[in-house]
Amino acid sequence: MNSLPRALALSFSQLGDPAILQIIFKSLLITLGIFLVVGWGLSFGFEAALEWAGLEDGGGASTLLAVLATIIGAWLLFRFVALFVLQFFAEDVVRAVEAKHYPDAASAARSLSFGEELKNGIRATLRALLANLLALPFAVMLLVTGIGTALLFWAVNGFLLGRELQDMVWLRHRVDESELAPLGQGKRFMLGGAVAGLLLVPFLNLLAPVLGAASATHMVHRSRSPHA
């Protein structure tokens, strides 16, 4: 049975696994590090802009602007950055889940090269940014509905996430390029929608990428081998 509730339950139950905890720590550290570096760069950018405008920065205005811009950027872009970073640890998540639940599949998996992981990460991130930018005009029009904008972005990101999470697992087990994706569009959307929802919940959003990758591992393997 490859149901989403079952996959999520199994994923939550493995959060205490040392291998999973290590991945969560490393991915969060790098994700936060990226935003700190961006914030540091922005402080210099704002300082240069204020100087160019002939304004003094005695009160630390550039630092304040950089902090605010970083916080807003983290709120808007956390999902993209976290999932991009997770691309480089996805294999570790998949291996940890497979080692515990699917040892036979683990021995048959292939490792993706750094180049493949980088290409997949950049492609997925650009695809997500493009889709969200295309949805933006419609989201603005839906602001009057109160909830339409949030639902639109949730649906767009749920659709994208389902595919990305499936591919994190499937590409390591795909026999050839003609093999059909193991999860149907409906199951991919359910998986992506659940993770997109978790990304909106404070604190849980820090675990959402890893939970998504672990749940995708269960769903992909149970679809490829229904008796697993």
UniProtKB/TrEMBL annotation:
Keyword Electron transport attached: no
Location(s) in or outside the cell: Membrane
Membrane topology: Multi-pass membrane protein
Highest taxon in the source lineage: Bacteria
Cross-referenced InterPro entries: CysZ/EI24
Keywords: Membrane, Transmembrane, Transmembrane helix
Residue ranges crossing the lipid bilayer per the database entry: 20-43, 63-86, 129-156, 189-214
Record bears the keyword Transmembrane helix: yes
Primary residence: membrane
Chain segments annotated as coiled-coil in the UniProt record: none
Protein name (database record): EI24 domain-containing protein
